[in-house]
């Protein structure tokens, strides 16, 4: 059971390969891409402990010269300092423009590796090997790379596409349940913004809180349909000039919550879950969709074990102010992605501040 999804772009098309128990085939999959012989694998210590040996062996058997660089796990390491350390290792191993960075890890590793690849020698190859659900369905696809600034998430970055996204669903066996749930937030997002049938299939599942809850067939459906949804959107709008903004559903308030809690207390997926509940509540107050639809969304988010309320100690004014630092602000107005029905959303900058404050207050717990 495997899937191959094409991300069709004007200049930098690539494939997303999804196949169980396929990590040992990475080198074989990379060989037809015409990459140089030097590869630097970027990972974190825990992931590298689980999968580093099989990846390195696969690459070496395919004829690559392989080195590695490890970064401690966590959003707090998604910084320019971590990028500088990658540069140091790239220089030490004399990486060239034909060389390749391989991102073995979750979204943080993918974003760091992509940004390093985009900027080292003005751009070298990189390959995504995501090991978290969130990275598989979202962060590894689409070419958004970057690091955080103390005052905002992903304020420093570049659009830079990988040469390949290589997904082995079985690596999710070692993913902590909390991180699995975080990835489910992005899966639900695709159901709300693009794929109502995916949403309905998720509703039918008995449990969605851990890898062990899912049959292999459902997991393949989740990965394939989520990646296909993102590929469809990115193929139409590579650099977020229009349609691609809908992929930020739940992220506007979500990013503010992440930032105000220091990127440590609430993880990205949890923040997006809260952000989707908030966006749904805003849409309901603006009469864009119905109470039954909002309830279905919130019930599915709850079913995954994600948070549905804003921490009560966060100041409403601070959240509203933090929204002004969002990358999507234009002419001082915050853009929101709001649902109009399951499977469809609209982009608007016409959310009144008093309504926004009211929703935030109502969601505090």
Write the layout of secondary structure elements.
Elements: E1 3-7, E2 14-18, H1 26-30, E3 38-43, H2 45-61, E4 65-70, H3 80-92, E5 100-105, H4 107-119, E6 125-130, H5 133-139, E7 144-149, E8 152-159, E9 164-167, H6 177-193, H7 196-204, H8 216-236, H9 251-260, H10 268-285, H11 291-303, H12 316-323, E10 336-341, E11 344-348, H13 353-362
Parallel strand pairs: 2-9, 3-4, 3-5, 5-6, 6-9
Antiparallel strand pairs: 1-2, 7-8, 10-11
Helix pairs in contact: 3-4, 4-5, 5-6, 5-8, 6-7, 6-8, 6-10, 9-10, 9-12, 10-11, 10-13, 12-13
Kindly describe this structure.
With about 375 residues, the protein is α/β, with parallel strands linked by helices. The chain has 2 domains: about 170 residues, 3-Layer(aba) Sandwich (Rossmann fold); about 180 residues, Up-down Bundle (Dehydroquinate synthase-like, alpha domain), CATH 1.20.1090. About 45% of the residues lie in helices and about 15% in strands. The strands form 3 sheets. It has a 7-stranded mixed beta sheet. A two-stranded antiparallel ribbon has the order 7-8. A hairpin with a 2-residue loop joins strand 7 and strand 8. Helix 5 packs parallel to helix 8 and helix 9 packs across helix 10. The longest helix is centred in the middle third of the chain and has 21 residues. It catalyses: 7-phospho-2-dehydro-3-deoxy-D-arabino-heptonate = 3-dehydroquinate + phosphate. Its main location: cytoplasm. Its cofactor is NAD(+); Co(2+); Zn(2+).
